Amino acid sequence: MIMCLILASNFLSVGIATELIIRNAFDERGGLRQDWIIPNPAPRVSQIVSTLSFSSDPIEAKEDDVNVKTPPTTVGLVSSGSTEYDAKSVFQVSLHGTYARGERIMNVDFALPLNGSIAVLEGKSGIGKSTLLRTITSLHSGFEGSASISLGGVDRLTFEPNEWRRRVLYITQGGASSIPGTAATFIDSISLSLDEVAQMLDTWGMPNTSLGQPFSSLSGGESQRVLLAIALASGPAMLLLDEPTSALDESTKLLIESSLKEKSKSCSIILVTHDDDQKHRLGTMMLTMEDIN
C-alpha cells in the first residue's frame, strides 16, 4: 500500500511539473516562447564536387584501386577540356539553400550533356542525394532556397509541372508501394504501350503475368523492374534513378545495365548506386557529394 502511495505521488509530481513546463514554455497565442528556443549549431554543408569529367566511355577502374579518382573540382562548368557545350545541349542544375529542416546547407552546381551520359551520383547515406533528385524533379523534398534548373536551355518554370516530371523522370527507392492497382492499369492510365513494357520485362527475366498483379503484391525486385521498364518506355530526356537495382541479383543487374546503356544513347541518366562495380561499369561522369565543414 505504501509503495502504491509513493508511486502515485511520483506520477502526480511529474504531472504537475509537466503542466508547469507547458504553461511557461508557450505564450498566450500558443507559440513557443523565443527564450525557450535553443538555436541549432552551425548547419553542415553538402556540396557537390566532380571527380571525373565528361567522357564518352564508361569509367574504367584500375586493377590495383577501383576507387582512384582525380582531384575534386567544383562542378558548374559547361565545358570540359577542349569540348564546348552550349545551353541548348545540356541539363543544368544550380541549387543553393537549406534542407533537413534547415540543419543542412546544399551547394550544387553542375551541367550534364544531353547527348547520352550516365552520371553516377555518390556520397554517404544522409548527405542529400535523394533530396537533390527530388528537388530537381519539383517533388516535395524539404529544400528551401535558390533553385535554377534548365533542360536544353529552357527553364524548369516554363514547363507545366506534370510535363517537367515526364521529361525529367525520377524513380525512387520502393516507389511502387504507393501506386494503387496493378501495373497494367497504371500503364494504361499514363497512355504507355503495355507491349513495350512487357517486352522489356521479358528481357530482364520477369514474366508478363506480373503486370496483372497489384503493385502491393510484388516483391522488391519485381517492383524495381516494373517501375524501371515503365520509366524507360516513357521516353524522358533525363532519367534520375535512386538505387534502381538494389534488390536484384547480379545476373539481373547486368541485364538491366545493358538496357540503361542502350537508353543512354537518347536519354541522359543520373544514377545513385552504392555498388562500386556497377558504378564503374555504367558511369561516364562522376558527381560526388561531400560534407564541407
Notes on the protein architecture:
This protein has helices at 2-25, 129-136, 161-167, 183-189, 194-203, 220-233, 250-263, 276-282; strands spanning 44-52, 73-74, 79-80, 83-84, 90-99, 104-113, 118-122, 144-151, 154-155, 168-171, 238-242, 268-272, 285-292. 32% of the residues are buried. It folds into two domains: 2-36; 44-292, P-loop containing nucleotide triphosphate hydrolases (Rossmann fold), CATH 3.40.50. It is 31% helix and 25% strand. The protein has eight helices and 13 strands. The protein is an alpha/beta fold and 293 residues long.
- Given helix and strand content, the structural type is alpha/beta
Order of helices and strands: HEEEEEEEHEEHEHHHEHEHE
- Let me know the largest β-sheet: 11 strands, mixed
Q: Quick one: how many beta strands? A: 13
Q: Classify the helix fraction into a percent range.
A: 25-40%
The name of the CATH superfamily of the largest domain reads P-loop containing nucleotide triphosphate hydrolases
Radius of gyration: 24 Å
Q: Which parts are unreliable, with pLDDT below 50 for 5 consecutive residues or more?
A: 3-22, 36-40, 50-56, 61-83
The quaternary organization reads as: single chain
Distance between the termini: 58 Å
Number of domains: 2
**How many alpha or pi helices?**
8
Mean pLDDT: 77
- Tell me the β content: 15-25%
Shape: globular
Which architecture name of the largest domain does CATH use? 3-Layer(aba) Sandwich
Q: What is the CATH level 1 assignment of the largest domain? A: Alpha Beta
